[in-house]
Amino acid sequence: MLGMARSLRGGSSPAAYQIRRSSCGLPTRVWYEATIGPLEPDRQYGMICDSGVQCVNPAHLGLKPHTAEERFWSYVERGPENQCWEWQGYIDIDGYGQFWNETLCRAHRYAYELMVGPIPEGLVLDHLCNNKICVNPHHLEATTNRTNTLRADGLPSRNARKTHCLHGHPFNEVNTYRGEDGGRRCRTCLRMYRARVSQTRREERTAILAGLSAKCSV
Question: What pTM did the predictor assign?
Answer without folding.
Answer: 0.50
